[in-house]
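User: Structure with zinc ion, tokens only please.
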Amino acid sequence: MTYTKDIDTLKNRYLALFDIDAIEAEIQNKNLGQYLTHNVEEYILGDFRFLADAFETFVAANVSQDKIDMLSDAFDYTYYHDKLAAFFMDPQNGFNLKTCHYCNTAYINSYGWHNTYGSVLEFINHATEGEWRLKFDKNKLSELNLQRILEDRKTSLFTSEAAFDSKRYLSHRIGTYKCLTINVEANHFDLDHVLPKSKCPLVALSLFNFVPSCQVCNEKLKGAHTLGTTKQDWIKLSPTDVDYSFDRDVDLKLVTDGSCTTFFDTRKANAAYRIEFDTSRERVYDKSIDLFRLRDRYNFHKQIALRILDLKERYADGKISEISRILSANFDTENEGKYTKSQIYDDIFNVSQIKNQCFYKLIKDMIERN
Ligand SMILES: [Zn+2]
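Assistant:
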């Protein structure tokens, strides 16, 4: 997970989602205080190592199931679920959530205008005529006013929602229209609890215990398991810990049994090649590779790797230089810089376009580590 937003700001925004007093009151009323070694706020904001300690201590204490149930009611994930989902989807919080953080083979589903426009202001300034009509029927926004918006926008973009509101295109402030608030029902992705809340409800609402993941990883494969068995495993295998180094320390390799010499003849190559995970630098990652069945899931898509290696073979460095020379040779100045080596390289391999998309690591490793 990358927390691009300044972490203290992010924590403040996160904390504001919860009614801490209510949670504390419930713990007090039901006499559950003995199970907490820290205050509620610390459980909600603590870093992953703090959470791993708390989880380990709690599990070792063999707390009875009825107390676990009562604690689950206090740290009520179901109650807060929609707010949490909206928090992770809100572009202002700096998460770029496109694919599953455990497998990178599936997109996490998040629909709606928030994928296209990062904020209401961006919508105001860039939504197309059709998008305005889709969101605001004629009762809310008259045809005349719609044309006014489109016209006024041409002269200069709106600098704030307030500046837009002051023009009275709509009868109410734009921020109050439900059609522009995040629709959690239609925007769905799974939030996995890295440390399972069913075993320790104290971590049910913790920021650093959440990993957006696909349904296969979350529901089918991980379920209520921990990642690995020891506390050291949990820390090393959690994408929310600062030392998580799967991308750096695991190499995806394409290996062959030698029966085929070309990547291009994919029918032959399919049987002769397989994708392997080289974990020699950090053996602990074998555990998450096994848990999420990454070997099977990646080999099902080995076509992607074969294609990249085929491209690499056909467009070796010298070839790209040659193409660049030929295409740049007789051009007028208008085309200058259009066919540099790095541009051609990017046109072919497309690396800069696929960041945050499925199989990004596989493609990057095929290019750089094979
Ligand atoms: Zn997944």
